[in-house]
Amino acid sequence: MAEFTHKRGKQQDDSGLGSVLDVLLANARLVLGVSGAAVLAIATLAVKRLIDRATSPRDEGDPKAEQKTLEESWQDLALIKATQKPPKKQRREDLSEPLLSPAPPPAPGDAREPRACPAPPAPPQVESSPPRCLTLQEKLLSHYSSHLAVPETQAVLARQLARSICTELQNFLRSKCPELPFGSLFLSGPLLDGLGALAADHVHFMLPVVLDATLWSLIPGEDTVVRNPRYWMIKRTDLEYFPRGHSSWDKFLVGQYLSSNMLNETLHKLLVASINWPAIGSLLGSLIRPVVASRELKLEVKHDQVELSVALFPVVEMEDKVLLAAPPEGLVENLWLESVGRAEVSKVRELDAGDSGARQHCLRILNSVCRSHPALHKLSGSPLVHVVLHLSATSSDWAEGSLAARFQQVLEELVGYLEKGVLPSYFNHKVNLFCELLDEEIEEMGFMLYRAVAEPELLLKEK
């Protein structure tokens, strides 16, 4: 009877405990979800088994019952351990690991329905570092290497082609005009001087006009009708003792002066009408055409690999002066322009060689940016060289590491000269290199460079 009462009480307790557990598990499903409720159920079942064994009477002396009880205890302990370490929840932001653990491989012969493979995780987004802000020094060097570096093979080919054309022109002049004592043609200009060559496409042919110093003299520009020290006149002397005809160049006299205009007109006719350029071009593997409409003596040369623009200048060298037959536009004739190009190149190279300077680099960049801006193209060439030479007298550090500082300083100097409207020649302070600029041009140049002083990068932007 007592045993029955004990069993009945146990059943009632079990029934009450079961009801409580059912209610608990039902609520757990709502709160924890299916997986959380399953874990809680396993743990509850394990605890319930332990309580049952603790309250039930033991069969003393029965080894089988003790062995069974021990095995059940180990199983329950395994269940409890399983509930102590729930599966680690996958972090959503950790995209390098799959969200679900891979399923174990199926046993041999175990038929399973094929499952669609999950898409591979997207590669992690690597934030690109923001572009590094280049300094003015780096921008200048980049501009120099990308815009101004003429390939050596192209430069060599251009010089060879120019020399071949020069030789053909020299032979023609000697055969066609043997009475005129022309000297030997030689090359000059941006392709050879290294100061302003933006590409291997510009070259000058210098044609020496050999004069007898006893029959000719120079008249300074201040004494000419234009009152400009840049232009000179070449006067025929001693006509009473050596009348016209004693000099081969007397045929180009206007009054008592050697006319640059008449000489240019004669050469222009020879270039356009007398020389067989198609034959010469075919011999050199190129197309050569004279520019008919130009006031200057020009040739256009097209080759498979290079294109050349050739300008021919008759040149007179007397009394340490170099004069070109390049008269100014207008009604004034017979004037000769003093050229200091050879002195400019020589002086810049001398200064760079003395302090390992970067003046030639700076001039190439300055010429490039000025020619690319319509408002500044008249500053390219000689004016820039003279600003650099003036600045070299006061700024001694022209190393490549100071290129940016010197570049900006040249811009500041240019603004100052434009404000005055005067840029004196480095070799002759009487010569104003801005004398032929209009007031409107000076104002436009000054405004552009004034902005560039504060922001030099404006001049390096692609056009």
Task: Compile the SSE list and pairings.
Blueprint: H1 2-55, H2 63-84, H3 136-148, H4 152-176, E1 186-188, H5 190-193, E2 202-208, E3 216-219, E4 231-236, E5 253-254, E6 257-258, H6 260-274, H7 277-283, E7 286-290, E8 297-303, E9 307-318, E10 321-324, E11 336-338, H8 341-355, H9 359-372, H10 382-392, H11 403-420, H12 439-454
Parallel strand pairs: 2-9
Antiparallel strand pairs: 1-2, 3-4, 4-11, 5-6, 7-8, 8-9, 9-10, 10-11
Helix pairs in contact: 1-2, 3-9, 8-10, 10-11, 11-12
Give a quick rundown of the structure:
Residues 156-344 form the Mitochondrial dynamics protein MID51-like C-terminal domain. The chain has 463 residues and is of the alpha+beta class.
Structure characterization notes:
It contains twelve helices and eleven strands. The protein is an alpha+beta fold and 463 residues long. Helix 1 (2-55) crosses helix 2 (63-84) and helix 11 runs antiparallel to helix 12. It starts with a helix and ends in a 9-residue tail after the last helix. The protein is globular and about 145 Å long. The strands form two sheets. Strands 1, 2, 3, 4, 7, 8, 9, 10 and 11 form a nine-stranded mixed sheet that branches. A two-stranded antiparallel sheet has the order 5-6. Among the domains are: 152-338, Beta Polymerase, domain 2, CATH 3.30.460.90; 342-459, Poly(a)-polymerase, middle domain.
